[in-house]
Amino acid sequence: MAKQFDVAVIGAGAAGMMCAAVAAQGGKRVVLLDHAEKLAEKIRISGGGRCNFTNVNAGPLNFLSENPHFCKSALSRYTPQDFLALVKKHRIAYHEKHKGQLFCDESAEQIIQMLKDECAAADVHWRMPCKVEAIAQAPDGAFLLSTDSGDVEAASVVVASGGLSIPKIGASDFAYRLAKQFDLRLVEPRPALVPLTFDDAGWAPFAPLSGIALEVEVTTGTLKGRNPGGARFREDLLFTHRGLSGPAILQISSFWQPGTPIVVNLLPEMDVAQTLIEGKGSIKKQLGNVLSQWLPVRLAEGLLAATGLAADARLADLPDAALRKLGLAINQWSLVPSGSEGYRKAEVTRGGIDTRELSQQTMMANKVPGLYFIGEAVDVTGWLGGYNFQWAWASGVAAGLAL
Ligand code: FDA
Fold it and tell me: Is 131 helix (H, G, I), strand (E, B) or coil?
């Protein structure tokens, strides 16, 4: 005989634990199943081990989705302040880093413990490690879950099994397979918040710059018009052996379309060409020395090599056209990535269950009563900076209250 529950939540990550706790606190008999050996690894490794658990400024504009309106309802009904109230109730010390990002003072482990405690307070049942292999729906609408440790029957199922990023800690395509089974559309999944790579030959001159970090402005796509398809971020960039990383690149990677360029402004505070041309009369120094006042020395040398200018050339001796070319290389460095580091390194998966298939109030599939999708499995992807957890909490609460 299969064990019977009101609700089975598949995936005990951020969204799943939140949803299970809320549904159980509302009086439902809930079972939470996860195939991982270790609970909530993504929370544990998040924010460098301190979990950037929300962002005080989180709003619909910080999320990508084919339907940008979908996330509004859940986000407005469970706000960063609501999650913060929970964090305070559990006496977890936290601090704000830049741009509204909230982190634990001590450890991400505290957020996991908090969610476990919330589940325990409402008698959530656990099955872990337990892999859900298949789901079938009976004629009366109930769901039968086949797992590697026996069957489970539930009136409702919440799919909180996440996206494809970081397969080595349990990511699976389970949500997408289920969507296909129930004839729900999928927005093509893609790695997001991910370092970008370049072909070996093209990147060879920049590979020695690995380790250099600086604040830049990076853009991609079109920013103007009725349907802007691009984005602009001002954050730190990091050179790596294979390409570019750092918050600026992770942010822009979610918007980048393969085959198109990203444009990096390495000195966003300065019009480099104009400054150099105006300084020809008064700046007596050699070009290399001038640039290394503004940029890391190795980067200045690399840029001069790439533009064919000698580091020991005197500014006054250089034609304006050469300085304009150098200015462009610094203020509008345009480069076409060959790809990304993929799901192995991506913090999230862009795309997922098409939101047009779901109720924005409850997260239930419109054509499969009793089947819900929450968290990263859904086509709602946050920027870097605590937004993805806020979506996990908010969508988990929306479903949890509706069950
Ligand atoms: P999540 O992936 O957390 O959970 C899904 C669960 O489902 C997993 O536990 C998995 O084992 C289980 N599962 C999958 N298939 C199953 C099956 N068939 N049967 C049973 N169980 C199954 N975000 C943020 O806001 N702030 C931050 O600081 C960070 N930092 C960060 C760092 C790194 C390195 C990564 C990879 C990601 C982040 N993120 C982040 C993103 C954030 O971690 C992510 O968006 C949420 O964890 C998504 O929560 P979910 O609950 O939707 O999925």
Answer: coil
Give the count of alpha carbons within 13 A of 28, CB side only: 26
Q: What is the DSSP string of 348-388?
A: EEEEEE-GGGB-TTT-BBTTSTTEEE-GGGBS-EEPTTTHH
CA–centroid distance, 154 to ligand 1, in Å, is: 23
Q: State the distance from the centre of ligand 1 to the C-alpha of 56, rounded, in angstroms.
A: 21
Cβ of 365 below 6 Å from ligand 1 = no
Residue-wise pLDDT tens digits, 190-238: 999 999 999 998 898 899 999 999 999 999 987 766 556 689 999 999 9
User: From the alpha carbon of 47, which atom of ligand 1 is closest?
Assistant: 28
Q: Which of 388, 390, 393, 395 to mutate to test the pocket of ligand 1 (most atoms within 8 A of CB)?
A: 388
* Cα gap 371→315, rounded to integer Å: 68
Ligand 1 centroid to Cα of residue 82, in Å, is 21
Mark 321-352 as b/e (b = at least 16 C-beta within 10 Å): ebbeebbebbbebeeebeebbebebbbbbbbb
Distance, CA 42 to ligand 1 centroid (Å)? 5
Q: How far apart are CA 230 and CA 251, in angstroms?
A: 11
Distance from the CA of 163 to the center of ligand 1, in angstroms? 7
By the 8 A CB rule, do 361 and 41 touch?
no
CA–CA distance from 396 to each of 47, 109, 125, 276, 347 (Å)?
21, 20, 17, 54, 19
Residue 170: C-alpha distances to residues 41, 145, 338 (Å): 9, 19, 27
Amino acid at 115: L
**Do 45 and 368 meet the contact criterion of CB atoms below 8 Å apart?**
no
Q: Which of the listed residues 19, 42, 71, 176 should we mutate to test ligand 1's pocket, taking the one with most ligand atoms within 8 A of CB?
A: 42
Give yes or no for residue 195 CB within 6 A of ligand 1. Answer: no
Give the global pTM: 0.96
Q: Is 166 in the pocket of ligand 1 (CB under 6 A)?
A: yes
ipTM surpasses 0.90: yes
**What b/e string do you get for 222-248 counting C-beta neighbours within 10 Å, with b at 16 or more?**
eeeeeeeebbebebebbbbebbbbbbb
Residues 23-77 have pLDDT tens digits of 999 999 999 999 999 999 999 999 999 999 999 999 999 999 999 999 999 999 9
